[in-house]
Amino acid sequence: MARIVIVNVPHHVTQRGNARQFLLAPDGERLVYLELLRHDVQLHHLSLLGYCLMSNHVHLAVVPRKAEASRWQ
Asked: SS3 sequence, 2-44?
């Protein structure tokens, strides 16, 4: 199913590990994830309002600034 993306409206995005696997155990992995997130937010014209990094899933609050943000994966 395609994502519904509305420009300039906040979206709650979640990402989960397969079979509840740990995604971001050591602090080093969390720092790498945040650096990749920073890069992708800029690349795909998103405003990051907030995030919560859990051990097996991630919550993001983002605002797409252009329609092309629907291609973010």
From this structure: CCCCCCCCCEEEEEECHHHCCCCCCHHHHHHHHHHHHHHHHHC
pLDDT in tens, 28-41: 889 999 999 999 99
- Number of structural domains in the chain: 1
CB 52: neighbour CB atoms within 10 A? 10
**Does the residue 56 lie in any domain?**
yes
Residue at 5 is within a domain: no
Q: Tokens representing 11?
A: 């979206």
Which residue range(s) make up the domain with 18?
11-71
Task: Examine residue 1 and state whether it is found in any structural domain, yes or no.
Answer: no
The CA-based dihedral angle spanning residues 18, 59, 28, 37, taken in that order and rounded to the nearest 10 degrees: 100
pTM of the model: 0.82
